[in-house]
Amino acid sequence: MDIHYNPQTIETAIQQEWDATSAFKAGETDARPKYYCLSMFPYPSGKLHMGHVRNYTIGDVLSRFHRLRGYNVLQPMGWDAFGLPAENAAIKHSVAPANWTYANIAHMRSQLKRLGLAIDWSREIATCAPEYYRWEQWLFTELFKKGIIYKKTASVNWDPVDCTVLANEQVIDGRGWRSGALVEKRDIPMYFMRITAYADELLGGLDQLPHWPEQVKTMQRNWIGKSFGCEVHFPYDRDSIEHDGVLKVYTTRPDTLMGATYVAVAAEHPLALLAAENNSALADFISECRRSSVAEADVATQAKKGMNTGLFVRHPLSDARLPVWVANYVLMGYGEGAVMAVPAHDARDFEFAVQYGLPIKTVIIPTDGAYTEAVAPWQDSYAEHGICINSGKYDGLGFDAAFNAVAGDLAELDLGGKRTQFRLRDWGISRQRYWGCPIPIIHCDDCGDVPVPAERLPVVLPEDVVVTGAGSPLAAMPEFYRCDCPVCGRPARRETDTMDTFVESSWYYARYASFDSSDAMLDARADHWLPVDQYIGGIEHAILHLLYARFFHKLMRDQGLLKSDEPFARLLTQGMVVAPTFYRDLGDGKKDWFNPAEVDVRTDERGRPLDAVLKTDGLPVTIGGTEKMAKSKNNGVDPEQLIARYGADTARLFMLFAAPPDQSLEWSDAGVEGAHRFLRRLWKFCAEHVNNGVVPAYRNSELNADLKALRFQLHHAIAKITDDYSRRQTFNTAIASTMELLNSLTRLNDTGAIARAVIQETLEHVTVMLAPIVPHICTAMWRELRPDSAAFAPTWPVADADAMSQDEITLMIQVNGKLRGELNIAKTTGAAAIQQMALNQPAVQKFIAGQTPKKIIIVPGRLVNIVV
RNA sequence: GCCGGGAUGGCGGAAUUGGUAGACGCAGCGGAUUCAAAAUCCGCCGCUGGUAACAGUGUGGGGGUUCGAGUCCCCCUCCCGGCACCA
């Protein structure tokens, strides 16, 4: 065995072997239990970045670990191939989005293969392939027939110069990113999926997911936002609004209804539009409200503005006249597009009321009875539940009693009553873009919106187009949109909108099971593999993608395609890959960013950073923060170069060692060196052992103290590492344990026959336990350690209980909770003897200084605390 | 703004159920080897005081519960993710 570790030779040979033998092809006829391990598929942006490397390494480690534990593992890969970046690249480089995408896929596939992932490549899918999206179109038509998909108008960001709809991220400070024009809201017809019909099930289903991170479930619960409240109808005031009607609002605080001093409506609300007919100032204000982005974050952070409409409504219980205001913080698309304002007990209403001098009426006091009038500045306690005051017949009632009383009275008056509401809104899936899945609808003047019949699917997206960035290319292609109505046969127009790309990623995990089915979306294989046993991806997908995929799973189930209720049994959300930033100020707020590789950081004699200079000119650069690897900050590291230099195993090892998977991972070139050094040391130690002759692993015989200690450490490590891989999913601590084992092996210095057998045992176990993380080097080492076993088919080690037993233990001795000494005792020592020995310690005597201990706490096997 | 998360040596992190804070690695310092350097090997390494033994102090800040708190509770600061058309 070569004493020098040569990763390139080892890795290319083994990868070729995996490829040639289709080593990771997964079948359904296998006696072993199935394990479906899935990493979120990538958008084919062009090159693999470190975030991908991290994601796919974590997935591969879990796949290979389960393979070693006797599972039939499926780990597939594919491409989330539709999306905005392809259109942007098309505009910039005058290439067709399709060609750009296919070239990127080819390059990224080869990069993934060089990482040594145990992927079943025969199942590869790309969502832009008609064989894939035809089933998405088919499901669309089925859901359309069922009424799950319906049409309504919704607001979008409209760029009046480019005459195009903009994504939220394309709106920067209220302007279009390319044209610079002020963006307007525009209402257009769109198709919506009735996700709200599944809101209760999506909420309840979270309780069936014990292996999802609590934080993700919490975020989804809050997003769905089930609330219990009241619908309240404010009758129109006939003197100002000259017809009958009611203004509907929803509130979770009916107990504060008597404190409502005005109502606020969205700019698009019918009452606002009515008032604006004879009020040009109001009309101007409404159009100002419409000149902003549709993003909720923008709406919520903009300065609160409003205007009185001059209209009034009547309080449903007191009959008081309440003014109707238009407010920019009220959203038309959410709830009723109107809110009742109780400034004394709601922070937003309070701010608005103070700003416009509207009355604030305190109607709730704290349960402890102390009277607190809601006066500026706002206190969070004003919003707490309490006791009603200034509320007539409701005075003295607590939250629940007041809630019920008000709800009952409203119901009796037919002006509202109890209602459950969700924050979740229906999912608008229409996109006015080219590079997406065509919506399979035909518009016929006589028959209306007609779904494309199944036998005419797919509606193929033409791939040879020129994208200009102004308007949708499909809407300019008569050969695409001209068609005949499937019902009446008369000339009709094909829908030219495409679907949100979240639709493709909502069911791809299921298609991997039935990847080659040409006569159905899914077949029996889907129920074989689903649910996914382990799903891995970025925390940024905690809400939207994961909620949509859960929703689709239920849709497919109700369509009879699947039997399970949830798509992903276990979820691991991985953190970002971050790196230091360096820059020079160029004046007027601009910065010149330098890649960490171009910079030398100088340190003091203790290793603390002093300053940084550019390698090429030796002049200083500013040390910026540690941020997510991004082109804009020039702090990225190219995985391809990393692998070319150190090999895939080093890249994988570093990614897993530097941080636990769910935390952000800070890039460090020196850390990569350290990971590589460990592999070199391991290889060298193994080679030296092998070159002196492999021996059978230790079975049983008399061990000296050092060898006993080594086996004690080894078998504890086996137990710990197994737990780290399976329950904890912290691979950094598993790696640390194998490093400790190698350190102990190096220190052993015993070449006797028994020692060599224990070393053999340790090396074999370490090789298997590291194999999920660094599979190439471990395969090569295993073949050297066990020349008898041709294939790499070891089994996961089991900790030996005998080796882990110990006769003597160490207890920590504390006085008043401070560490003052330690005590080595036989495991069987009784409490009284332990107390006596602890008290006899000189250090203990010194600190109790002759006082009588008040209390002595003994934590078995851990410590003794003497309290004086 | 709202929802979710995070903060531990010079750095990444460990401490799994409230019980030895700093495992493992990086950086740094000292030594061995070398003509020399790289590589490698050995040792030291939270902070303050002390030659040392040792003592004090220390997990973003403030308060609390406990014999004992990085871990539990309350308040605050800063950073990160999401907010429905980026994926």
Structure description:
By secondary structure, this protein is α+β, with helices and mostly antiparallel strands. Helices cover about 35% and strands about 20% of the residues. A hairpin with a 6-residue loop joins strand 13 and strand 14. About 40% of the residues are buried. The structure holds one RNA strand of 87 nucleotides.
How would you concisely characterize the structure shown here?
This protein has 868 residues and is an alpha+beta fold. The strands form eleven sheets. Strands 28, 29, 30, 31, 32 and 33 form a six-stranded mixed β-sheet that branches. It has a four-stranded parallel β-sheet with strand order 2-1-26-27, with helices on one face.
Essential attributes:
globular; alpha+beta; 37 strands
- Oligomerization state: single chain
Average per-residue pLDDT, rounded, comes to 92
- Give the radius of gyration: 34 Å
State the shape: globular
Question: Helical percent range?
Answer: 25-40%
User: Largest sheet at a glance?
Assistant: 6 strands, mixed
Tally of extended strands? 37
Helix segment tally: 27
The separation of the N and C termini measures 63 Å
Strand content: 15-25%
Provide the structure class. Answer: alpha+beta
- Regions with pLDDT < 50 over 5+ consecutive residues? none
Which helices and strands appear, and what pairs or packs with what?
Elements: H1 7-20, E1 34-39, H2 50-68, E2 72-74, E3 78-79, H3 84-93, H4 97-114, E4 125-126, H5 130-146, E5 149-159, E6 164-166, E7 171-172, E8 175-176, E9 184-193, H6 199-205, H7 214-224, E10 227-235, E11 246-251, E12 262-265, H8 270-276, H9 280-290, H10 296-301, E13 306-314, E14 321-327, E15 338-341, H11 347-356, E16 364-365, E17 387-388, H12 399-412, E18 416-421, E19 427-428, E20 430-431, E21 441-444, E22 448-451, H13 478-481, E23 482-484, E24 491-494, E25 498-499, H14 501-504, H15 508-511, H16 524-529, E26 534-538, H17 544-558, E27 571-574, E28 577-587, E29 590-594, E30 599-603, E31 609-614, E32 620-628, H18 639-646, H19 648-657, E33 665-666, H20 669-691, H21 705-728, H22 731-748, H23 753-770, H24 775-785, H25 801-804, E34 808-815, E35 818-826, H26 831-840, H27 842-848, E36 855-859, E37 863-867
Parallel strand pairs: 1-2, 1-26, 3-4, 12-14, 26-27, 28-33, 34-37
Antiparallel strand pairs: 5-6, 5-9, 7-8, 9-19, 10-11, 10-18, 12-15, 13-14, 16-17, 20-25, 21-22, 21-24, 23-24, 28-29, 28-32, 30-31, 31-32, 34-35, 36-37
Helix pairs in contact: 1-24, 2-19, 3-4, 8-9, 18-19, 19-20, 20-24, 21-22, 21-23, 22-23, 23-24
This protein binds one RNA strand of 87 nucleotides through helix 7, helix 10, strand 19, strand 20 and helix 17.
